[in-house]
Amino acid sequence: MSTRWEQAARLAVGVGLAVVGVRAAQGRAPVEHSFTPVPPIASKSVTAPAPPTASDGEEVAYRLTELLGGAQVDMPQMLRGLGDLTIHWRRMQAPWKDTLRHSRARLVQLVALRTSATEKAHTVTMKTGEQVTFDVRQWNMAEGSYAEREAIVAPTPASLRYRLVLPPHAALSFDPAVLGVGEGAKGRAIGDVRFVTTIKEGQGPAEELGRVTVTTLERDRWGSVRYDLERWSGKDVELEIRTEASPNAAVAAEGALPPALALLGAPRITRRGPTRLPYSVLWIVVDSLRPDVIASFHDPNVDAKKRAAKRPPGDTLLPSIPGLTPHLDALAERGTVYRDAISAAPWTRPGTLAMLAGVHSKDMGLSPLPWIIPEPMLDAYYRSEPPLLALSMRRAGARTDAIVNNNFMLGYAAVGVDMGFERVDDFRYRTADTHEVTEAALATLRAHKDERFFYFVNYNSPHDPYDPPDECVARVPKPPVGPRDDSVARYMAEACKDDAAIGKLMAELDALGLRDKTLVVVTADHGETLSQAHEFVAEGLDQVNTRFHHAFAMYEETTRIPILLSLPGVVPEGKAVDGRVSNLDLAPTVASVLRLDQDPRWQGIDLVALAKSGQRAPERPIVTLGRASAAIFWGKWRYALRENEARKVTLVHQEGATITVADELFDLDEDPGETKSLSGSPAHAATVADLRARLQLALAPKKAASTDDKAGAAPIVMVRFAGAGKVRRVFATIRVKGGKSLAFAPFGISKDAVKPGESLLTVDAVTAKETLVGLDLTVLPDLAPLEWTFTFDDKTLLDDMVFGGPLGVTVPGLSRGILDAGTRTFAAARAFPFVDPTIDDGVFVVRIGGDPGGPERVAGGAAAAEVQSALKQWGYAK
Known about the structure:
By secondary structure, the chain is an alpha+beta fold. 20% of the residues lie in helices and 30% in strands. It is built from 19 helices and 43 strands. The protein has a 15-stranded mixed β-sheet that branches. The chain has a six-stranded mixed β-sheet with strand order 1-12-11-14-9-3. It has a six-stranded mixed β-sheet with strand order 34-37-32-43-40-41. Strand 27 and strand 28 (637-642) form a beta hairpin. Helix 6 (326-333) crosses helix 12 (486-511) and helix 18 crosses helix 19. The chain is globular and about 80 Å long. The model is unreliable at 1-55, 182-188, 703-712 and 853-864 (pLDDT under 50).
């Protein structure tokens, strides 16, 4: 039976409030305090909530972002504010707001603000001496730290009113911020911005809970505020949050005041008492961590059997080094380890998605091949309603934070997707992230120790480049006890660094009394290719050298990962489970421990139940999907099938011989180091056929991703001209190459301004001062190349004046047309971006609908050069 406040929460969605006047605050004096920026994970109490007499913890009762559809919203400058927001590129519209099927959905944005003093763009010197700097909007790789919040955009002046029945022992919290983009006409700052919060019971007077003032110097930083609502527990109230700007004298003298972009980060109401979730979750991922780095994951008998095999493993098996990772070994004694676990993918984005969603990324619409995700794939992913564990935890009242060095977990970058967390603290450092991630995670645990939480903590140390501390290097013994290769030794020492950080997190759980209330998960997104025997260059995949990397090889050492679970009294302690498991098992396992509903799309098993049974993992096909490759583990066999891009390889240690490899078959009993493929042997033809059939069955779609009803229709290429508030003469020629037809529809220009031919259009028009003009093009067949030239006032426009795609950014080659898969991919969008014709200057192009032409291929042409340059910097390509 639902409580009164639970019923009210459901009623609040979709029911608008009556317009009510808010009278002057009466009763308790309002609290006035200056805004003091704090680390994104800290909290600042205005009035400390009175602890209830009996409580199991604190959980989220309402997220105000999700109740926005039922709120009374007064924002006279909403459209202007949303337009200003487009200047801030580190943001995207929140994709998981099913209750906001109207214009208010645009007000819920995922916004990231820089928390480091500076950020540094990645630049690499090419062999030619050329300095190449990478497009951070695609790769999200500028060194610095950033805090993303799911926020309500409230451009001043704004008022949000919610009619709610408050739960027991309630509190309101949000992270206020002001973006520094809504400035005065001549670049002067508007002035201070206030966040004023009031509450009113029934028809009584409104009381001011408090106000936060953000000055000009305090912009672009998240604060944190909390108000105690204990006095109104169980009451029917109207809660109002207002944003107000105070113009300075210079701006006020100019007349109309532009809006200040105020943000309410993660606004929510919590309740204290018995919680719906019996435990919290601390999920720790160490990028590229192999299980054989950790002594407790070694079984001496299994190691001895491998070394006695017909073809010994050689350097594919790392030595067991007690004392290298003492904290993980100690945690293993307090939990269960799964020694033979396989990742669903050999690189980060699909590997992370698989563990958090319980299904392969392909079953969510995302191929594991491209680095930059084509817009149609993104659309398929978000429309597929993926079964992300973070979303399940949110619905159950948990706080969901990701504290990471993982550029694939932020959807505003072209390489990433949103994975359902309401807060993401992102530390973009190649080797200095461990300390930052740990301190942020510790502060989060301390500040919110009473809350039910799902914290996803992602380290990155045992990942090229290897830069371990001297103390950890000293722990790796010299050969023959330790590895012969110095790079392998340094890789192992990097794991030692993150082990120390994990030790700090475990000590903090103990100090806060949270160990018995928190399920701890430790795993990796994939392994690492360290063996010299597995060194080759993938000619069709960015010419990468597979050794000391991942993503391009499908060997067992590249896909094996550790899985360690610990929760006293629930997960067996000091236990090791034999038999092959997958990181697809993690989401259903966590859901089972937390008593959440099992999503029918999850493909895994309950690992805790398996540990309690005392049995080996059941024999089942385990599939891992890589870049243009797929592999299946079945019994003693690993079989891999390669697509065209992955077939041509150069063998580094065989005089640079280049060969074509269509598939691979390895007997892991006789050849645990995977040094001799048996796929071409007639004696194993039946085994190859059987495993290929099993793999193809596993690759069959489990559930078709939802797509727009217009999928497959001829795409529309929208071309718009903006003149920065000036009337400019536009002349364009547009030609379809090898196509059957080129149709057009004018937009804001006379039809007579367009002169059509059989496969050529000429446009002679002018821009408008305050509106966009242009035309819409339809090409058949839809993949026929479009070639064009644009001139403004007789000046030919180059790439720096022609913009494309959902962000409206420069695209290499787009000034010449949509000529190849690369420009088609980067021009693809679900909708036209916001463009202000009074400010923006140039041509804006998007391609909506249709097939970009092989979206599972890396973009070609000039766009591919950008991908290749970034891969060279990271060491993934030569």
